[in-house]
Design goal:
This protein is of the alpha+beta class. The chain folds into two domains: about 70 residues, Glutaredoxin (3-Layer(aba) Sandwich); about 100 residues, Glutathione S-transferase Yfyf (Class Pi), Chain A, domain 2. The chain has nine helices and four strands; from the N terminus they run βαβαββααααααα. Strands 2-1-3-4 form a four-stranded mixed β-sheet. α4 runs parallel beside α6. The longest helix has 24 residues. It binds glutathione. Glutathione (GSH) binds next to α3. Glutathione binds next to α3.
């Protein structure tokens, strides 16, 4: 299998963490900047986005959620998404974390606009507020503290790692101090260390 990824991408990091956690071998990880519009990526994902997993028969899987569910089902006996089809609240919690990753990436895109005058204070504030509200909610619902490693925790670790990497100015630890403590432990996992964005 081939995984098109970038080390700054939080979606890619979730996939790379799962590959390591499940001990999946034979994945060729190909560092890819989606903005380069490389033919290899565009041929298999018309969206031009990463992560994209190409199976051994050539079939492409995207987006990250599809890849994560595939890996868990094929190699993990559904240990990470164990709630599938049974627990709609847990599904919504997963959507919340995924949506927060979207907000954090949208915030980066807003900040990367070429001309400063074109950056929107409205959208910047909206993404930041969603992040702070969402993390406070996760803190209050105790989502991070479940026994065993879940897909929620994996994606939450990648989300928080990405916020620290790209949005150090966002003072999320003030609204979610218990999550900050949780992250300081979680960051020591070998898979987290091995996939730290640079
Ligand atoms: N919903 C997608 C989002 C993937 C995504 O937006 N990836 C970014 C990198 S973090 C990307 O490839 N951006 C290129 C673009 O938007 O054209 C997923 O979960 O995989």
């Amino acid at each position: 299998m081939k995984l098109f990824y970038s080390d700054a991408s939080p979606y890619s990091r979730c996939v790379r963490l799962v590959i390591r956690h499940l001990g999946i071998s034979g994945v060729d990880e190909i560092m890819t900047n989606p903005m380069d519009n490389g033919e290899d990526l565009l041929e298999i994902n018309p969206l031009g986005k990463i992560p994209c997993l190409q199976l051994n028969d050539g079939a492409p899987l995207f987006d990250s959620e599809v890849i994560l569910r595939y890996l868990d089902s094929e190699f993990g006996e559904d240990q990470l998404f164990g709630f599938r089809g049974h627990n709609w609240i847990a599904e919504s919690h997963f959507s919340l974390i995924k949506g927060l990753i979207d907000s954090a990436v949208s915030l980066s895109q807003e900040q990367m606009r070429e001309e400063e005058g074109k950056r929107s204070p409205f959208w910047t504030g909206r993404f930041e507020q969603a992040l702070l509200r969402g993390l406070q909610h996760i803190e209050q619902t105790g989502l991070a503290v479940s026994p065993g490693l879940t897909i929620h925790q994996i994606c939450l670790g990648c989300l928080l790692g990405y916020i620290d990497f790209r949005h150090g100015e966002l003072e999320w630890r003030k609204v979610a101090p218990a999550l900050a403590v949780w992250l300081s432990d979680f960051e020591h996992l070998p898979a987290m260390k091995a996939t730290r964005p640079s």
